[in-house]
């Protein structure tokens, strides 16, 4: 049996259908149970939709995990959790009960049919960069060689991103 060491990954979570916070909570539970150990979690952030804007606002969050899985295995696990929680893929950037994006996996650069790492839009999405900066501000993008903080400072996206209080 091959024993793998721990790898670090950053995952973006989002929801704009149903009980958004509860869905994000369930997704984190499933990730912890099935895919790896959550080391850090950002707060919940409210933001308007990105890409397809005529839909409900999102609640977004990012988590930092350690896993013994490969990047492809982790992505497969994230897709299985989306399906388990009721995600149905109808239209690109459309409403969704849960969206789990693998943003980074160590410093790996991967481009295959089923996975592109780092996530191709991370540097363009304020709703991703703000929670990433909360939990991993100094994580370096392996292509652009910039930290998440630097990417946020130059992010072209001007959508407002609001940290939610516990009761909101």
TrEMBL record:
Keywords linked to the UniProt accession: ATP-binding, Folate biosynthesis, Kinase, Nucleotide-binding, Transferase
Task: Report the top EC class in one word.
Answer: transferase
Pfam (any one): HPPK
Domain 7,8-dihydro-6-hydroxymethylpterin-pyrophosphokinase residue range list: 92-103
The pathway this protein participates in, as annotated, is: Cofactor biosynthesis; tetrahydrofolate biosynthesis; 2-amino-4-hydroxy-6-hydroxymethyl-7,8-dihydropteridine diphosphate from 7,8-dihydroneopterin triphosphate: step 4/4
Q: Which InterPro entries match?
A: Hppk, Hppk_sf
Cite the EC number.
2.7.6.3
Q: Which domain of life is it from?
A: Bacteria
In alphabetical order, the GO MF annotations are: 2-amino-4-hydroxy-6-hydroxymethyldihydropteridine diphosphokinase activity
**Gene3D superfamilies of this UniProt entry?**
7,8-Dihydro-6-hydroxymethylpterin-pyrophosphokinase HPPK
Alphabetical list of SUPFAM superfamilies matching this protein: 6-hydroxymethyl-7,8-dihydropterin pyrophosphokinase, HPPK
Tell whether Transferase is among the UniProt keywords: yes
- What protein family does this chain belong to? Belongs to the HPPK family.
- Matching NCBIfam families: folK
The role this protein plays is: Catalyzes the transfer of pyrophosphate from adenosine triphosphate (ATP) to 6-hydroxymethyl-7,8-dihydropterin, an enzymatic step in folate biosynthesis pathway.
State what protein this is by name: 2-amino-4-hydroxy-6-hydroxymethyldihydropteridine pyrophosphokinase
Origin species? Shiella aurantiaca
């Amino acid at each position: 049996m091959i024993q793998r060491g721990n790898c670090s990954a950053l995952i973006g979570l989002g929801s704009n259908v149903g009980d958004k916070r509860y869905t994000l909570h369930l997704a984190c539970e499933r990730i912890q149970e099935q895919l790896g150990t959550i080391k850090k979690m950002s707060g919940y952030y409210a933001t308007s939709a990105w890409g397809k804007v005529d839909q409900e606002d999102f609640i977004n969050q990012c988590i930092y995990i350690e896993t013994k899985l490969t990047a492809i295995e982790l992505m497969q696990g994230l897709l299985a959790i989306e399906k388990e929680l009721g995600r149905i893929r109808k239209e690109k950037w459309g409403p969704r009960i849960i969206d789990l994006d693998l943003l980074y996996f160590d410093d790996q650069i991967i481009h295959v049919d089923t996975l592109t790492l780092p996530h191709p839009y991370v540097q363009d999405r304020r709703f991703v960069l703000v929670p990433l900066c909360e939990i991993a501000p100094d994580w370096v993008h392996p292509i652009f060689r910039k930290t998440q903080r630097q990417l946020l400072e130059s992010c072209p996206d001007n959508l407002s991103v609001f940290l939610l209080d516990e009761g909101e």
